[in-house]
Amino acid sequence: MLTLLGDEDPGVFQTIREQLLSAGEPALRLLEQSRLHPDPAIRRRVREILNARAANQFDSEFLAFVLSQGEHFDLEEGVWKFTLTTYPDVNIAAFRAQLDEWAALVQTQLGPVYGPGVAVDALNDVLFNQLSFRGNSENYFDPANSYLNRVMDRRLGIPISLSAVYLFVGRRLGLPLVGIGMPRHFICRYQTATEEIFIDPFHGGQLLSRLDCRKRLLEDSPDFDEKLLSPVSNRRILQRMIANLHLIYKERRQAAEAERLQRYLVALSR
After folding, report:
1. In sequence order, what E strands does the chain have?
2. 188 sits in which H/E element
3. What pairs with residue 157 in β-bridges?
4. In angstroms, rounded to a whole number, what is the distance separating the alpha carbons of residues 240 and 160?
5. Helix crossing, 92-107 with 75-84: angle to 10°?
6. CB neighbours of 248 closer than 8 A, spacing ≥ 6?
7. I need a surface site. Which of 39, 84, 152, 182 has the fewest CB within 10 A?
8. CA distance 17 to 22
9. Are 268 and 235 in contact (CB under 8 A)?
10. How many Cα atoms occupy the beta-carbon half-sphere of 242 within 13 Å?
11. Residue 18: is it exposed, middle or buried by C-beta count within 10 angstroms (0-12/13-18/19+)?
12. Domain positions in the chain
């Protein structure tokens, strides 16, 4: 059966694939032993089947996680669990370590006592000057802009995914950062008892005042609502990240991906 995986007929491959996926642990052990098969075509298809099986498992784990949580779960954990449903072989520990390293770089620029301006300037310098993160305005609707591993690898993203990187690095430093879910353009806010700074990671960490944000909102709608500048929960951040991808796949008529993401959105809406 394994040799049939190298068959050039897609129908034969799909038949064998389904049989192996439904055959249980013996088939899984056979596939694991065949990762280094001498035939490149068989190696490739073995990896594909193993990834599909792992993705199905991570799909169940992600849904279970979402359904068991309230509004304020660990956003980074949720994002990585979601990432595994598409990239089941991604090394999460390595990406977390990378975020740790970036936070350490920011820490080197901070003294024992610092104010909001110094903290934001240091975070902006590391992420946007040293590491060259930027908004992918050239290919805004590329799905890779919404998966954290791809955003970190390419240093490219959309407002909400770049804001996620900003939040994850900042929280490692204990910075009081929150996500602000403005319509069409997600941003971050650094908030203390006496000062607030709005930050736009998509535009290189551009600093905004509350008045600047109001002006942006009024460009989209004459009815300004102060609630639009309030922090959003981690559940709603993850929901919005997935909703962006769902729309992309619907526009591309990739029905299977759109349906998968729709299930996640239903679970997150509860």
Report:
1. 134-135, 156-157, 177-180, 187-191, 196-200, 206-208
2. strand 187-191
3. 135
4. 8
5. 140
6. 141, 143, 146
7. 39
8. 9
9. yes
10. 31
11. exposed
12. 2-68, 75-268
Chain length of the chain: 270
The distance of Cα 179 from the centroid of its chain, to the nearest Å, equals 14
- Burial per residue of 160-199, b for 16 or more beta-carbon CB atoms within 10 angstroms, e otherwise: bbbbbbbbbbbbbeebebbbbbbeebbbbbbbeeeebbbb
CA gap 52, 31 in Å, rounded? 12
Query: Six-digit token pair at 102?
Result: 């970036």
Pairing status of strand 156-157 against strand 134-135: parallel
Q: Which amino acid is at 177?
A: L
Residue given tokens 């992918």 in the structure block = 136
Token pair belonging to 96: 């977390």
For each of the chain's 270 residues, which pLDDT tens digit applies? 566 566 566 666 677 667 666 666 666 666 666 775 767 767 777 777 777 777 888 999 999 999 999 999 999 999 999 999 999 889 999 999 999 999 999 999 998 888 889 999 999 999 999 999 999 999 999 999 999 999 999 999 999 999 999 999 999 999 999 999 998 899 999 998 888 999 999 999 999 999 999 988 888 767 767 888 999 999 999 999 999 999 999 999 999 999 999 999 999 998
Strand-pairing partners, residue 188, are 179, 199
CA nearest neighbour of 43 among 86, 69, 5: 5
Tell me the H-state helices in 173-209.
Answer: none
**Stretch (H or E) spanning 48:** helix 40-68
Rounded Cα distance, 88 and 50, in Å? 9
Burial class (CB in 10 A: 0-12, 13-18, 19+), 71: exposed
